[in-house]
Amino acid sequence: MQLPHPKELFSVTYPQLISRGLDVWHRGAAWILGPLLVGFMAVCLAMGGEQVTELHSIILQAAPYSPLLFMPAGFALLAYLTKRFFPGSQGSGIPQTIAAIDTLEVEKKSNLLSFRMAVGKFLLTLGGLSIGASIGREGPTVQIGASIMHMFYGRGPFQTAEARRTLILAGGAAGIAAAFNTPLAGIMFAIEELSKKHVFNANSSTLITVIVSGLISLSLLGNYTYFGSSSAYLDWQSGLLAILICGIAGGGAGGLFSQALIAVSYKLPRRMAALVKKHNLLFAAACGLIVAIIGVYTHGLIFGTGYQSTRLTLEESGSLPWYFGIAKFLATLLSSMCGISGGIFAPSLAVGAGIGDNISNLFPNLATHGAIVLLVMAAYLSGVTRAPVTSFIIMMEMTDSHQMLVPLMSASVIASAVSKMICPTPLYHTLSKRFLPLPARFSGPKQDILPTVEPVAKQTE
C-alpha cells in the first residue's frame, strides 16, 4: 500500500480553510455567546420582576382595592397581546419547549422558539407580574433560553435534528439554572423533563451552556440562595412518618392541580369549551377578577410569585394564614388557565409552603416547622411536574439544605407516585400536545379551550 505524501496530509484548500473557520466560529458563538445571552436575559427578567413586583406593592398599599379594577383589564389585555402578537407564548413556556424538541421538523420552521418569542415572553411575563398575577418567571426563562439557543440552528455544523434538539435542551437547562441559581437542577431538569422521550447526552456543550449562563447570574446577582439558608434537619429514620405524610399531602395536592389544569384545558363540556374559546378575553378578565378578589381578601399575599411569603415561613419568623395554601392554589390555577404568559414553579413552591405550614400547625410534634415546610414544598413541586429528582435538587440548592437530602428525595419520590394516581399523564407533556403539528395533535386530546398556535409546518420564524 502506497502511503500519501506528507505534503498531502497537511494540504488544505482555501475554501476548506474558510469552511473550517466558519464551523469554529459558529460553534464558539453557540456555546459561548448563546449562554451569555441566556444568562443576561435571565438576570434582566429577575431584576425586572423584582422592580414591577415592588411597584405593584406600592400601588396596593396606596389603594388596597385597586386590583378589582385593573386586574380584570390587565388579564384581558395580556391575553389579547399574547394571542394577537405572540401566539405560542401563553403559559409557562415549558410545554412549548417540549413540543419543539418532540417535533419531527428538520427545517427551521417554528413560532415556538425564536428571538421574537423570547422578547415577547420577556415582556408579557413582566406585564403579568406587574398586575399581580400568580405566576413565576422560571418557566418563561426556559422558553427564552431555548429560543436563544435555537437561533443558532441551521448555521455552521448545527444542521441536523439531533443538533437542534441539543441546542434546545441546553438552552432550557440553562434557563432553569440561571433563574434559580441552581446549575445541578438545570441539568436534571433537562434529563428528567425536557428529554423524557429522547436519550439525553450530557455532553460538554450542554454543561458549558449551563455553567456559563450560571456564571452570568452569579457575577451580576452575587452568590445567593433563592430562599436563603435553612438549618432545618430531619433524621430520615426517626422522621419516616413526617416524610410519608408530607409526601402524600404534597403529591396529592400537586396531582389535583395538574388534573384541574388539564381538565380546564381539554375536558370541559363541548358547549362550555366553545363559549370560553369564543369569548377568551372575557374569560381572562373573569379569571383576573377572581384572582383580584382572592388577593384583596388575603391582603395581597397571593399576588405575584409568592416569594416573600415563602421565605417568611421558611425563616420561621411568622406563620402564614391557614388559608394561604388554598388561596395561592386557586390564584395560580386561574392565572395559568386564562391564556397569559407565566410559569408555575415559584407559585407551586409557595403553595407547598402554605400546605406545609398547615401540616406543621396540625401536627406540632411531627417534626420541626422548617423541615416540614421544606418537605411539602419539594413534594408539591414533584406532584405538579412529576419530576422528583429535579424537585428535591431545586429545594436543596435553593435553601442550602444539603443535610435534608435523603428526606427531600424520599418525599419527592412518594409525591410523584401519589400524583400519578390522581393525574396519570404528566402536566407539561400533556399541555405540549397543543403546540405540535397537526398529525401529532390528532393523537392527543381532542378538546383545547386555551389559546393555541398554528401548526408548526405552516409558520416560519
Mean pLDDT: 80
Instruction: Describe the main β-sheet briefly.
Output: none
Q: First CA to last CA: what distance?
A: 52 Å
Return the CATH architecture of the largest domain: Orthogonal Bundle
Shape: globular
Question: What structural category do the secondary elements indicate?
Answer: mainly alpha
Query: What is the overall number of helices?
Result: 20
CATH superfamily of the largest domain: Clc chloride channel
Helix content range: 55-70%
What percentage of amino acids are in beta strands?
under 5%
- The number of E-state strands comes to 0
Task: Report the order of strands and helices.
Answer: HHHHHHHHHHHHHHHHHHHH
Low-confidence runs: 438-446, 452-461
Instruction: Quote the CATH topology of the largest domain.
Output: Clc chloride channel
Query: So what's the CATH class of the largest domain?
Result: Mainly Alpha
- In total, the number of domains comes to 2
Q: Work out the radius of gyration.
A: 23 Å
- Oligomeric state, counting identical vs distinct chains: single chain
